[in-house]
Design brief:
3-stranded antiparallel beta sheet, 14 helices, globular
Length: 407
């Protein structure tokens, strides 16, 4: 196995035996392939005798959702592995531990999180995650602060930026989030019943201007090392534990892109609630719970980020009075804008959110789609005027009631 090729089940088991802390020559291993999405092979390897297990993840040289006509660099596997190791160092226990890797085969063997569930699935099932906001807020604060110029020697940070240049994955984001929803594209996907919404997206010059501003930030800001795809499908969770996975879209970019991704996916589920809970009082209670979670995610992030700043800021000029307030306000604005852009893309773009897409009732699904688009557009159009989390939440409330936010 000296050159790249897609692994077989037997090869995945053979490689897993290199994880000596778990397996040895006497281990009786079984292996099955499990689906993770659109870009990789993922194997679950288990020792029958001890029930110890690992995940073997191998990058494919193309996007499965399209096929070999969409080639991708295998270097993303190295980026993902190194990012997992960095996140584990900065926030231990918040990501799966890396046990073994082979960059030539573009694979990583890591901790199995089968005792957790994918957060998106858990939310759809109606589960409650009271510690999530605290966990994810701390994770984002630590991984973003300590990989920024606020905390790093600027020369070392520039060297780190070079390590995490990720052009193929960034190109996917640039196209799917910041361009294709706003023009005719064969990769866009939506129900004909919301064609009026899709047409409105393509002709809304005010919206396009704000998207262009957000796109510029994504293209040019190397503010911190991002996860790059931090949605509820990239989080394993229990009521007591939160684990972030799949940072293969990682690169140095604007912090608000990661924060906005978390907020967007909570809001997408918020928009979907009537499609999952028919009883009015119960639905309203669930919606309130999700909105509280959105606000708490930002508040926890801000609390931890400010504390890290006070404790460990290294940039002398960052101690200037008023700079922290300005910085935090801009982060909130960026987070709102990126959240809105991600919501829009999940309704009309290539890859949707199961929270909404799997609602069986067509009328309720359409209602959720339109609600998500209304919230998303309001956040994008108004993001540069937001100065507090309460203003952010008011925009969501107004959009949910069908009111158009005024700039």
């Amino acid at each position: 196995m000296s050159s790249y090729h897609p692994l077989t089940l037997d090869e995945a088991m053979q490689l897993s035996q290199k994880v000596l802390d778990l397996f040895d020559a006497n281990s009786e291993l079984t292996c099955r392939e499990i689906g993770d999405g659109n870009l990789n092979l993922v194997f679950h390897v288990t020792d029958i005798n001890s029930s110890k297990s690992v995940i073997v993840k191998q990058a494919l040289p193309y996007a499965k959702i399209v096929g070999e006509s969409w080639p991708l660099s295998l270097d993303r596997a190295r980026i993902e592995r190194e990012l997992l190791q960095e996140e584990y160092r900065l926030c231990p226990g918040s990501v799966p531990e890396v046990y073994y890797y082979d960059d030539e085969l573009a694979l990583t063997i890591m901790e199995d999180l089968s005792d957790h569930v994918i957060m998106r699935k858990g939310l759809i099932e109606g589960n409650h995650y009271p510690l999530f906001a605290k966990h994810i807020g701390q994770f984002m604060a630590r991984t973003l602060f300590y990989t920024s110029d606020l905390a790093m020697d600027q020369s070392l940070k520039k060297e780190s930026v070079k390590k995490f240049v990720n052009p193929d994955q960034c190109k996917i984001t640039e196209d799917l989030i910041f361009e294709e929803p706003y023009r005719i594209s064969e990769r866009n996907s939506y129900s004909p019943i919301i064609e009026d919404e899709a047409e409105a997206l393509r002709t809304d010059t005010e919206l396009h201007l704000e998207i262009a501003i957000l796109r510029e930030k994504f293209l040019t800001q190397t503010q911190a090392l991002l996860h790059g795809d931090l949605h509820t499908g990239s989080i394993f969770i229990t009521p007591e534990s939160t684990k972030v996975i799949d940072p293969e879209f990682g690169y140095y970019g604007p912090m608000g892109f990661d924060i906005g991704a978390v907020l967007a996916n909570l809001l997408l589920h918020y928009a979907s609630v009537p499609g999952w809970i028919s009883e009015g009082v119960a639905a309203a209670t669930r919606e309130e719970e999700l909105l509280d979670m959105v606000q708490d995610v930002w508040n926890e992030f801000e609390l931890h980020f400010r504390a890290l700043w006070e404790q460990d800021v290294q940039d002398y000029m960052a101690r200037t009075k008023g700079y922290q307030e300005l910085y935090i306000t801009r982060l909130l604005q960026d987070s709102a804008g990126f959240a809105g852009s991600k919501m829009i893309r999940r309704i009309v773009g290539l890859a949707h959110a199961a929270d909404i897409d799997t609602i069986e009732d067509a009328a309720l699904r359409e209602q959720a789609e339109r609600k998500a688009l209304t919230i998303g557009k309001s956040l994008v159009k108004n993001h540069r005027q937001i100065t507090s989390i309460s203003e952010f939440m008011n925009l969501i409330s107004d959009a949910s009631k069908g009111k158009v936010g005024q700039r």
